[in-house]
Records
---
Amino acid sequence: MAGGGFCKLPGGSVVVALYLPGPPGGAAAPGSRVRVLVHAANRARALTRLRNLGLRAVYLRGNTEPPTPDEITAVLHHPDGLVWRAAPDDDTESWHPIRSLLRGAPAA
């Protein structure tokens, strides 16, 4: 997947940031890309956490877009350590728990 990166924290853990396509029927708009942040012990474990949620084709190639300090703070303060945002450049949108991305869109 293009558009991802990681940052190693002083304690030895890492924060991985990836751009992923929004899942069909999920909370994000169809065809949109979402920024996903994962806090884990290492990069492989972070990707495994995403794969275990059903996002099978998740790869981190290179470190072209590492997480910003604000993104690191957001994922560290979330109890699950997994958050997403549909408009990464929009600071007014808050981070959402990963469960809200993977479940179906609410009925109108």
---
Amino acid sequence: MSTEKLFRIAITLKGLDGALQLVGGLVLMIVPATVISGFAHAVVTRDLLGDPEGTLARHLELAAGHFAEGRTFAVVYLVAHGLIKLGLVWALAKKVMRAYPVAAVVLSAFVVYEIFRAIHTHSLALPFFAALDVVIVVLVLREYRQLKRDRVAA
């Protein structure tokens, strides 16, 4: 598979991720914290995650409990993160040359933040997202170098 094709797939996935984050942030803005806590409790008590005393169930209960405290942060983070990603994806899809270094820096900052948050929150998902963002940064930089070479050759 060519680097360009892999790059297109990666930015498409990043765009979908940004759209989901934006929608998720808007939903969190509307849905009361008690509904989210109640949902998490229902999932755990109905054994949908396996053992109600298991690691995954405890993690979900803890996250739902902390949600009320960090709700504003979560909404602002998701909406801002989603909008930034969608803007970067649009610029990369249009091959706006200045967007490539900006995207690499912004996504690298997201990686640092995701790792920082994962260490402090013991999140299971954040290291996975950080690793995906590292792969996308590498693809963005490779595509940027290729576009620069193509423009010099033209």
